[in-house]
Amino acid sequence: MTLRYTVDAVVLDIEGTTSATGFVVDVLYPYSRSRFAALLAERAEDPAMSRAIAQVRELTGDPDADAVQIEKTLNAWLDEDRKATPLKTLQGIIWSEGFARGDLVSHFYDDVVPALRTWHTAGLRLYVYSSGSVAAQRAWFTSSPEGDLLPLVSGLYDTENAGPKQEPESYRRIAEATGVEPSRLLFLSDRPGELDAAVAAGWHAVGVRRPGEPYFEQGVGDHARAGTFDEISITSSRSTT
Fold first, then answer.
1. What's the first-to-final CA gap in the chain, in angstroms?
2. How far is CA 213 from CA 74, 161, 221, in A?
3. What is each CA distance from 52 to 19, 40, 90, in whole angstroms?
């Protein structure tokens, strides 16, 4: 069955929705783990680094944590798959440089890129809201197997500039930032808590269920569901006025 929506914009989750979580866990996490120590040793004074280090110290309650202790904390958070903002910031720095060097190429499910191009051509605005940092999102879309997809995207949101993904206020903040009425926004994600938060903020939401993804067996609660983007038909509401 095809799900049909008339909206102005689509907001995309990445892991489990546009792209395989396994790629992130099996490829990107080890890549960042192997480079935390060098990053902390060589660039601790960079503004983004300094802010992330201060956030780690604040979250751990240890204002005197040194580089070794911070690396240990980052690796522990990585093992837990914790969505901590400083972890995502530092991963974003490492991944951005890895993509730029050609060490990394991002992953997208086969149905995703054609759908994004179709929606963009139809006049829909596309946004990304991921727990990964904006820097990581930018690198991800720039370094796809099909080339630079960033021109398709109107804006990028993460837990730092929007807030936690399971809180309705984060979705209200995105709606305000984009200038799109909540009822004209559609959110695609594989996580029920995120879908709940989007709907609580007045958005439409579709749960994307892909076999093999961590949340597949859990399902998406009472939300509409799709196995691929091919099952979602979206028309720009601006084209109907």
1. 27
2. 24, 27, 16
3. 26, 10, 7
